[in-house]
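Memo to structure team: turn this sequence into structure tokens by end of day. - J.P.
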Amino acid sequence: MILIKNVRPLIDGSIRDNCNITIENGKFCDLLDMSTSVKSEKSYDMNGHILAAGYIDIHTHGGAGHDIMEGTAIALDVISEYHLSCGTTTYCPTTLTADLPTTFAALDNIREYKSTTARIFGAHLEGPYLSKKAAGAHPPEYILAPTPDNTDWVFDYKDIVSRVTIAPDAECADIFTSNCKKNNIQISLGHDASIDDEINGCIEGGATSVTHMTNCTSRPSRRLTPHKHLGLTEIGMIDKRLVCEVIADNRHVPNPLFKLLYDIKGTSGIALVSDSLAIAGFNGGEMYLGSGDSKQLIIVEDGVAVLPKLNTYAGSVTPISAAVKNIYKNLNLPLEDCITMGTLTPAKLMKMHDRGDVASGLLADFNILDDDGNIIHTFLGGQLIK
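Reply from structure team:
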């Protein structure tokens, strides 16, 4: 048994009074009064600091010089270690739109990989089922429509694919969404040029989130008549069935805009994501988004990753832990809300029933934080990592 002494646990979005917590077999066991005597093999006195579940990043392409699309165990080793060093204990390795053989190789690599550091909770397919009108950093030549002929392979990988981003205006998007729901694959909407009718069709089919809200998400527009339709940005704000991924780096989503989203959606409607690239946590040398023929040069300008060829933002260089500190320090939001958006909210979205909070029987993956949101220690399965 492991004993964590004198901590204030963050439970279901609220920081509780000082207590002791026991851990057995890598899982939380009991929350005990400070005066309760317990025999343990190891004990750690945390001096009244906050104990919160480890961060969960459901959208990340890599870090520390490596990209998911490399399709190697070494790449996943380094990426997993990078995330764990930032307090992220679970992540969804995210693909970039590419030719299908390259995508298959990346998924095969994830399927075969056995992590000893940060936990992988299935892959996130960001593409190829996007809109060419809102491709962003995704090579448009590899974008496909999710027709029955183009999607069978996704379900061949349903043991490792946990979520997919699709554009609601893509051909057969609503049918594909329904098929994903039947196969327990979470659908996120994004990189689109959609109107509300198309978006609502996908929501009715089972879509439950928006990919990197306000970045490549559609705005109000017209089609064939003067009637103006809402876009994904507006539907994402007002529809309570959708959780919004947000890159809270004050660049992809400026802080005043984040505050607006927070005021509308609350902690249960926002999942912080890094959308981190290989260049995150990497110092020196050229770095690329993706791999093979579709790779694109990345540079960092003013704290954000940029594709100079396209003159546009790519993903970020900001881990969730840094995003939490940004919105806590600069927007004066409650620290418990900032942390919850990076832990419990993504866990609920992805139906991670064994993590994301502090309760008996859940995985003892957690961070010890001070009152400024700085990570002091990280534990994985009850074992001290740093």
